[in-house]
Design brief:
single chain; alpha+beta; 2 domains; four-stranded antiparallel β-sheet; three-stranded mixed β-sheet; 9 strands
């Protein structure tokens, strides 16, 4: 083996193929860099691309489906950001047989007070948006399962 030869693990990491809900997803470095990176694709490293592709595979995420998962590169000094969209979480919730319901809302700041608002109200110029919020319940959990999206 020469110095430029890739190990089997490296070769396997450069392209992934897997299924999400019956749809075959096939990704390689060039495809992800050309079509899926948001922002500055030219600055995205192979390491960031490999991490993104393999995380998508292991977590069952489909980057080809709008709203599911994104790889965003802002600058050469910042690492690429992997953002899992709301749709991925909703898909998982809906596929769970114990899922009961969800309620979307927001967290706002009014003066020094932080307020949870479920459901999302009309816009108010006196409020400063802090984050999005999801309140969900599932059968047998007993407790509310809360997730914050910023």
């Amino acid at each position: 083996m020469g110095n430029n030869a890739l190990s089997k693990a490296e070769q396997n990491a450069l392209a992934v193929s897997y299924e999400v809900l019956g749809t075959r997803v096939e990704l390689d470095l060039q495809f992800v860099k050309k079509y899926l990176v948001r922002g500055r694709a030219d600055l995205t490293s192979d390491q960031e691309l490999v991490f993104f592709m393999n995380t998508c595979k292991m977590q069952g995420l489909n980057p080809l489906a709008q709203g599911e998962v994104y790889l965003i590169k802002y600058s050469k000094d910042d690492p690429a950001q992997m953002v899992v969209g709301k749709d991925a979480y909703l898909r998982r919730a809906y596929s769970n047989p114990d899922y009961l319901y969800k309620n979307d809302g927001i967290v706002v700041q009014r003066g020094q007070e932080i307020i949870w608002l479920l459901p999302v109200p009309r816009r108010n110029p006196d409020w400063w948006l802090v984050s999005g919020v999801l309140h969900a319940e599932r059968e047998g959990a007993g407790d509310l399962q809360r997730g914050f999206l910023r």
